[in-house]
Amino acid sequence: MNDGINCLVERLGIIETEIFISQIIREPLDYTKWQREHYADMSLSELNKKAVEYAKNSRS
Prior knowledge:
The protein is built from 4 helices and no strands. The chain is mainly alpha-helical. Helix 1 packs across helix 2. The two termini are 26 Å apart. The model has no long low-confidence stretch (mean pLDDT 86).
Protein backbone atom coordinates (compact mmCIF):
# COMPACT_ATOMS: atom_id res chain seq x y z
CA MET A 1 0.00 0.00 0.00
CA ASN A 2 2.78 2.42 0.91
CA ASP A 3 4.56 1.76 -2.39
CA GLY A 4 1.36 2.56 -4.27
CA ILE A 5 0.77 5.79 -2.36
CA ASN A 6 4.40 6.81 -2.85
CA CYS A 7 4.12 6.14 -6.57
CA LEU A 8 0.97 8.28 -6.80
CA VAL A 9 2.59 11.12 -4.86
CA GLU A 10 5.69 10.95 -7.06
CA ARG A 11 3.65 11.07 -10.28
CA LEU A 12 0.72 13.29 -9.26
CA GLY A 13 1.90 15.30 -6.30
CA ILE A 14 0.36 15.31 -2.84
CA ILE A 15 -2.78 17.31 -3.60
CA GLU A 16 -3.69 15.40 -6.77
CA THR A 17 -3.06 12.11 -4.95
CA GLU A 18 -5.49 13.15 -2.21
CA ILE A 19 -8.09 14.09 -4.83
CA PHE A 20 -7.57 10.79 -6.65
CA ILE A 21 -7.95 8.74 -3.47
CA SER A 22 -11.05 10.64 -2.36
CA GLN A 23 -12.69 10.02 -5.75
CA ILE A 24 -11.94 6.31 -5.61
CA ILE A 25 -13.33 6.01 -2.10
CA ARG A 26 -16.56 7.81 -3.10
CA GLU A 27 -17.23 5.68 -6.16
CA PRO A 28 -16.85 1.95 -5.53
CA LEU A 29 -15.54 0.05 -8.52
CA ASP A 30 -15.64 -3.64 -9.25
CA TYR A 31 -12.33 -3.75 -11.12
CA THR A 32 -12.82 -7.33 -12.31
CA LYS A 33 -16.21 -6.52 -13.85
CA TRP A 34 -14.87 -3.29 -15.39
CA GLN A 35 -11.86 -5.09 -16.85
CA ARG A 36 -14.00 -7.82 -18.37
CA GLU A 37 -16.39 -5.27 -19.89
CA HIS A 38 -13.57 -3.25 -21.47
CA TYR A 39 -10.73 -5.65 -22.21
CA ALA A 40 -12.03 -9.24 -22.25
CA ASP A 41 -11.93 -9.60 -26.03
CA MET A 42 -8.64 -7.75 -26.50
CA SER A 43 -5.46 -9.64 -27.33
CA LEU A 44 -2.34 -9.06 -25.26
CA SER A 45 -0.60 -7.34 -28.17
CA GLU A 46 -3.58 -5.02 -28.70
CA LEU A 47 -3.67 -4.20 -24.99
CA ASN A 48 0.07 -3.47 -25.09
CA LYS A 49 -0.37 -1.22 -28.13
CA LYS A 50 -3.11 0.76 -26.35
CA ALA A 51 -0.96 1.07 -23.23
CA VAL A 52 1.98 2.40 -25.24
CA GLU A 53 -0.28 4.89 -27.04
CA TYR A 54 -1.73 6.04 -23.73
CA ALA A 55 1.74 6.48 -22.24
CA LYS A 56 2.87 8.57 -25.22
CA ASN A 57 -0.24 10.77 -25.09
CA SER A 58 -0.22 11.28 -21.33
CA ARG A 59 3.34 12.53 -21.02
CA SER A 60 3.62 16.09 -19.84
